[in-house]
Design goal:
single chain; Creatine Amidinohydrolase, Chain A, domain 1; Creatine Amidinohydrolase; 6-stranded mixed sheet; 13 helices; 18 strands; about 15% strand; binds glycine; binds manganese (II) ion
Length: about 425
């Protein structure tokens, strides 16, 4: 619990001139009286470590009792159906709340907590009930201002501040990420051993995900992409229903979640254990781009520079493979690579697979954020000769390859957290042939 308290303290030093209100998630109906599986919202988890729905955290920087929680009250009847709740008393003992109320008292108690503040830090639009309550408060206080009530003048989004905090991972967070990655790596190990000509994508997925669950991951950070043959050219292919043929590549992009932190790993390999010469040529280009991108991921360097470096290797590779003609610089400037490489090379990684935090400051064309120790990002170049790349050389058609690693920026460079997963041609062929 110390790390959550430390984050609230740190946030209270960054935001000092208002009260901060952060909602938990709510259950979403799937159909009738059945709900989707609940997973806490990441910003709420980051500040509280509290995993139940419908809660609200209120942080009053500088106040003698700065941390208030609204939580679902104990209710034996409901808990019999949906699981035990922490309740108002235990949320103070176990989660460090200075004050706690049942969510049933939100309308009555939240206005009291806000009364002395003219500025509320809350992400408008993030919670219907809080949206209404805060706007309603603003109107009521305007009406009562002649009698002495303070105006509630400003509702300001605290997420940019929280997002920037989340960008730098603590040692404890890195441990969670590494654990998620190790579990995912163990799942890939099973997938390498089980995918053979004739296997179905869902079978390989099931074997991999059994290992995720067995090793302690309650859920995936995102739906697994298990894409054989040309399916690998559909970037977020998740139907995973096809049968693998001899000669197919299999692309798996998967990440187990551990303590709400997500891994994000992609490997592509031949299901018969041996790349064809064309597959190998493309693989080597993607691998070189991945390695160059990782090399560029260092403290003080531009975060966006990782993409630029990888893109240059990929575009030169497309020239060498005969998929493009022309000048390297012109092809990059005019985005001639787009038919074969249509996504970014990196994103932040953490509680969310596409984690929070800006990549540029000062707008879309503004300068790149500089990399700093504690930042975690993916490096995931790929090349895709899919159904819409009509001008691709015949021999490359149907090939889709991505290689994705998770990289932590350190004081003196970086640490590849996914280094245990086979990656070179030899390692891949060996892993894909092992019993
Ligand atoms: N799995 C989604 C991504 O790699 O960004
Ligand atoms: Mn991925
Ligand atoms: Mn990714």
């Amino acid at each position: 619990m110390d790390q959550f308290a430390e984050r609230r303290d740190r946030l209270s030093k960054l935001i000092t001139d208002g009260v901060i209100v952060v909602p938990a998630g709510h259950l979403a109906t799937r159909n009738n009286d059945v709900e989707f599986e609940f997973r806490q919202l990441s910003p709420f988890w980051y500040l509280t470590g509290f995993g139940e729905p419908d809660a609200v955290a209120v942080i009053r920087p500088g106040h003698e009792k700065p941390f208030t929680m609204f939580v679902l009250p104990r209710d034996p009847k409901m808990e019999t159906w949906t699981g035990l709740r922490t309740g108002v008393d235990a949320v103070q003992e176990k989660f460090g709340a200075d004050t706690a109320f049942p969510t049933t008292e939100l309308e009555k108690e939240l206005p009291k907590l806000l009364a002395e503040y003219e500025k509320v830090y809350y992400a408008l639009g993030s919670d219907k009930k809080l949206d209404e309550l805060l706007i309603d408060q603003s109107v009521k206080r305007r009406r009562m201002s002649p009698r002495g009530d303070k105006h509630l003048n400003e509702i300001v989004d605290p997420m940019p501040v929280i997002d920037q905090m989340r960008l730098i991972k603590s040692a404890a967070e890195v441990e969670c990420l590494q654990k998620a990655i190790d579990i995912t790596a163990a799942g890939f190990d099973i997938a390498f051993k089980s995918a053979r000509p004739g296997s179905f994508e869902y079978e390989v997925q099931a074997g991999m995900e059994i290992e995720f669950r067995r090793a302690g991951s309650p859920r995936n950070g995102y739906p697994s992409i298990v894409a054989s043959g040309e399916n690998a050219c559909i970037l977020h292919y998740i139907s995973n229903r096809d049968q693998m043929n001899d000669g197919d590549l299999l692309l798996i992009d998967a990440g187990a979640e551990y303590d709400l932190y997500s891994a994000d790993i992609t490997r592509t390999w031949p299901v018969n254990g041996k790349f064809t010469p064309e597959q190998k040529d493309v693989y080597e280009v993607v691998l070189a781009a991945n390695e160059a991108g990782i090399e560029a991921a260092k403290p003080g360097e531009d975060a966006m520079g990782v993409h630029d470096v990888a893109l240059k290797v990929l575009t030169q590779g497309l020239l060498d493979l005969g998929a493009l003609t022309g000048e390297l610089d012109t092809l990059i400037k005019d985005r001639g690579f787009l038919p074969y490489y249509m996504h970014g090379t990196s994103h932040w990684l953490g509680l969310d697979v596409h984690d929070s935090g800006v990549y540029r400051t000062g707008g879309r064309t503004g300068p790149s954020v500089k990399l700093e120790p504690g930042m975690a990002l993916t490096v995931e170049p790929g090349l895709y000769f899919g159904p819409f790349a009509e001008d691709a050389p015949e021999g490359l058609k149907g090939i889709g390859i991505r290689t994705e690693d998770d990289v932590l920026i350190t004081e003196d460079g970086n640490s590849v957290l996914t280094s245990a997963v086979p990656k070179t041609v030899d390692e891949i062929e060996e892993a894909a042939s092992a019993d």
